[in-house]
Amino acid sequence: MTRDAWDARFDDFWDGVDLDDSTGARARLEVLLAERGIDDARAAYERGSLHDSLGEEHAAIPLYRAALADGLSDDLRTQATIQLASSLRDVGDASGAIALLRAVPASDPLHDAAQAFLALALHCDEKPTEALALALRTLAPHLPRYRRAVDAYAGELVKLDRVRVIAVGLLVRDGSVLLESYPANARHGEFLRAPGGGISFGEPAAVAVRREFAEAARRHDR
């Protein structure tokens, strides 16, 4: 069967899947994958997508990562990236989602979709003004009128005056220091920082550090 024919089979599966019947949905997907006969990046992507659709983001994340690492076809890579980022946001890793979505180039056909999910991730990362500005800039080119006005107003939005409280931990082992790498974007170059993140309201700093280290360990294990 040709690749286009398999794409159509998967499309039919997603068009007709009953997510209220999780057992049946899993069985139907596995039958389809068994007929295809290749346990590869596409299979990981489809399994991850089903876990995601069933609200099982923790199970979906390693499958998306495996699909991207194992050579998922170009026409699905951005979809997998967006879905992975959305799952990361859902499990509390907004920073990881932001890094993935900012890497989607403007030339990608799904760039606007990536920007929408980026706006959601920014909001979850306590950056509401940046999220709104991004959403407006993404929307502006599609408006029948007032495109320039909306784009200009987006540029005039002012970030809220606030102090974001974060907690970071310094882990030293055998003379080496554990650091996280943050990729370059339009605002800054690549930089390193001790692992950590935002403190939730009422959360002790020590608890926040342990939580952030646990999340980093889970990302590394995947």
Instruction: Name the poorly predicted regions.
Output: none
- Distance between the terminal alpha carbons, to the nearest Å? 32 Å
The proportion of residues in beta strands is: 5-15%
Shape: globular
> Largest sheet at a glance?
2 strands, antiparallel
Strand arrangement, largest sheet?
Answer: 1-6
User: What oligomeric state is this?
Assistant: single chain
**Given the helix and strand composition, which structural class is it?**
mainly alpha
Number of E-state strands? 6
Cα-based radius of gyration, to the nearest Å: 20 Å
Q: How many helices does DSSP assign?
A: 10
- The proportion of residues forming helix, as a percent range, comes to 55-70%
Task: Provide the residue-averaged pLDDT.
Answer: 90
Fill in the keyword field for this structure:
222 residues; mainly alpha; 10 helices; 6 strands
List the helices and strands and how they pair.
Layout: H1 3-16, H2 22-36, H3 41-53, H4 57-69, H5 74-90, H6 94-102, H7 111-124, H8 128-139, H9 147-156, E1 166-168, E2 172-173, E3 176-177, E4 180-182, E5 191-193, E6 196-198, H10 205-221
Antiparallel strand pairs: 1-6, 2-3, 4-5
Sum this structure up briefly.
With about 220 residues, the protein is mostly helical. The protein is built from ten helices and six strands, in the order αααααααααββββββα.
Please describe what this structure looks like.
- The protein is mainly α.
- It is 60% helix and 7% strand.
- The protein has helices spanning 3-16, 22-36, 41-53, 57-69, 74-90, 94-102, 111-124, 128-139, 147-156, 205-221, and strands at 166-168, 172-173, 176-177, 180-182, 191-193, 196-198.
- Strands 1-6 form a two-stranded antiparallel sheet. A two-stranded antiparallel sheet has the order 2-3.
- A hairpin with a 2-residue loop joins β2 and β3.
- α1 (3-16) packs antiparallel against α2 and α4 runs antiparallel to α5.
- The longest helix is centred in the middle third of the chain and has 17 residues, at 74-90.
- The model has no long low-confidence stretch (mean pLDDT 90).
